[in-house]
Amino acid sequence: MKLPGVIGALAAMALLNSCGPAGAAAKTAGGRPTVLRYAFTSTAEEPEAANHRQELTRRYLERELHMEVQMVLTTAYGAVIEAFRSNKIDAASISPFSYVLATQKVPIEAIVMRGSKSGEPGEYSGVLAVPGNSPIHSVDDLVKHAKDLTISFVDPASTSGFLVENAFLQSKGIEPQRDFKRVVFSLSHPASLLTLKAGKVDVAATMQRLVTGYEQTGKLSRGDVRIIWVSPSIPNQPIAVRRDLPRDFKEQIRQAFIDMPKKDPEVWANQSSSALPASSDQVYVAANDAMFDGLREMARGVKNLSLLEH
User: Fold this and answer.
1) Which CATH number fits domain 123-234: 3.40.50.10490, 3.30.450.20, 3.40.190.10, 3.40.630.30?
2) How far are the Cα atoms of 78, 98, 158, 164 from residue 307, in angstroms, in the given order?
3) Is there a common fold for 5-121+237-300 and 123-234?
4) How far apart are CA 45 and CA 21, in angstroms?
5) What pLDDT is attached to residue 163?
6) Handedness of CA 139, 141, 145, 148 (dihedral sign)
7) Among 95, 241, 268, 282, which has the minimal tally of Cβ within 10 Å of its Cβ?
8) How far is CA 7 from the centre of its chain?
9) CB of 254 within 8 A of CB of 111?
10) CATH number for region 5-121+237-300
11) 308, 109 Cβ separation under 8 angstroms
12) Per-residue DSSP letters for the chain?
């Protein structure tokens, strides 16, 4: 399954245009950039909330790193990959699968992710969900009636909104583009859920904790949607940096995020969207590239997936 050309091109264009002229950023004598260019990706909240979170994060990083920080907000995963590839950004909050894809094109490395106070990295799951009144009650029903159903994925570079569900469906003999009546990409988890609730699609791939979050905040009533499959655990979204940044600078960025809960509780509280609140025992913990090897293997096992190079 290939990345839709129009989606990828428009997403990349929007981010790259906002990042200014092409070319490497100015650096100090020690190789540290004079400005940290940080891409901030959000696909699970409203623009106002995302902008507020972005601004709080920018101010915090400027204070901790003693430098200017330029933030770019995007809801398209492919745009962040392209920005890394074309040297438009130095760091990014990026989905796990997007990170795996990006590492095939440019040398970047994960430095932190959400985890527990004991230092354990966090995990989450993707789901396949149907409207509450759907006649589809199981995966077997889904497979049997696929030719009559419209399925919504989030983004071709989404982990919980595409990769894990696609891999699972293929394990059941279903090729989404071939076997479903129609395949659509919503470009955000909330859009997938709300179009599912409205009955505009028959099944949606999204993240389990968003369903729970929307039920807790009243955006969904219990019974509006029904989960028929939950994926194995996925490593949490990492914050990644260019591998060629000076080692001490990368460690400073890592430490700034790790220190965030105690140094600025307000910024930390706003790191999560209202629909995806962090649990009270969550913090940022150190991350590394090897944590994503399982996703790499999963991606290589998906037929016709041209996004990951072997």
Assistant:
1) 3.40.190.10
2) 10, 10, 12, 14
3) yes
4) 29
5) 93
6) negative
7) 282
8) 16
9) yes
10) 3.40.190.10
11) no
12) -PPPHHHHHHHHHHHHHHT-SSSPPPB-TTS-BSEEEEEEE-SSS-HHHHHHHHHHHHHHHHHHHTSEEEEEEES-HHHHHHHHHTT--SEEE--HHHHHHHHTTS-EEEEEEEEETTSPBPEE-EEEEEETT-S--SHHHHHHHGGG-EEEES-TT-IIIIIHHHHHHHHTT--HHHHSSEEEE-SSHHHHHHHHHTTSSSEEEEEHHHHHHHHHHTSS-TTSEEEEEEPPPEEPPEEEEETTS-HHHHHHHHHHHHHHHHH-HHHHHTTS-TTSPPPTTEEEEE--GGGGHHHHHHHHTSTT-TTS--
pLDDT digit string, tens, across residues 226-285? 999 999 999 999 999 999 999 999 999 999 999 999 999 999 988 876 555 555 678 999
Contacts of 202 (CB under 8 A, 6+ apart): 130, 131, 134, 136, 148, 149, 150, 151
**pLDDT tens for residues 142-165?**
999 999 999 999 988 889 999 999
Residue tagged 């190079």 (tokens):
309
Structure tokens that stand for 75 in this block: 């809801």
Structural domain spans, the chain: 5-121+237-300, 123-234
Q: For 217-241, what is each residue's pLDDT tens digit?
A: 888 998 999 999 999 999 999 999 9
Q: Do residues 89 and 19 touch, judged by C-beta distance below 8 A?
A: yes
Structure tokens, 127: 């789901």
Task: Give dist(CA 42, CA 273) in Å, integer.
Answer: 9
pLDDT value at 188 more than 60? yes
Structure tokens that stand for 30 in this block: 């020690």
